Amino acid sequence: VDENVIPTCLMTFHYINQNKTWTEAQQYCREKHTDLATVTNMKDMKRLINISAGYQREAWIGLISKAEFTRTWFWSLSGVEFNESETNWNPGEPHDRGNQGSENCVFLNHVLKWEVTGCGAIKYFVCFNREY
Predict the structure, then answer these.
(1) Which residues form the C-type lectin domain (predicted)?
(2) Which of 20, 29, 30, 72 could potentially form a cystine with 127 if both were Cys, beta carbons 3.0 to 4.6 Å apart?
């Protein structure tokens, strides 16, 4: 089985053990679930961390900075606003390490904090289903 599921009140996160770029992961999540993992509050953040904790692998989430906007963050799921006070950045993040805006996609690192890297990197990823 390459998927673990933890039900939540409003959404269910799915940790996918497949290597994909951020865009490929987004497409997979949109086809099979709702979208890449989206966090709107700290309760969701804790749930996302809980499902990812056993893997110790970097995994894409649905947070992206569009190249034309300098460090303005957006959730992959349209209509969900990014809340700057509800974040889980690794110390020193977000950064770009001098890569001229090429590090625009966010992943959970091995200590379950958010990091930024190029969207073409290959990683596992976390999808979610929205419950209505």
Answers:
(1) 13-128
(2) 29
Strand 59-65 and strand 35-36: the pairing is unpaired
Please provide the DSSP assignment of 3-69 as one string.
Answer: EEEE--SSEEEEEEEEEE-HHHHHHHHHHHSSEE----SHHHHHHHHHHHTTT-S-EEEEEEE-TTS
Q: What is the pTM of this model?
A: 0.86
**Cα–Cα distance measured from residue 102 to residue 56, given in angstroms and rounded to the nearest whole number:** 25
Task: Name the nearest CA neighbour of 59 among 4, 113, 101.
Answer: 113
- Kindly state the DSSP code that residue 57 receives in the 8-state scheme: S
Q: In the prediction, which pLDDT does 97 show? A: 55
Q: Is the peptide bond before 91 cis (omega within 30 degrees of 0)?
A: no
Structure tokens at 130: 């929205």
- pLDDT for residue 109 is more than 60: yes
- Which structural domains are found in the chain, ordered by start? 3-130 (3.10.100.10)
Q: Return the half-sphere exposure (C-beta side, CA atoms, 13 A cut-off) of residue 109.
A: 12
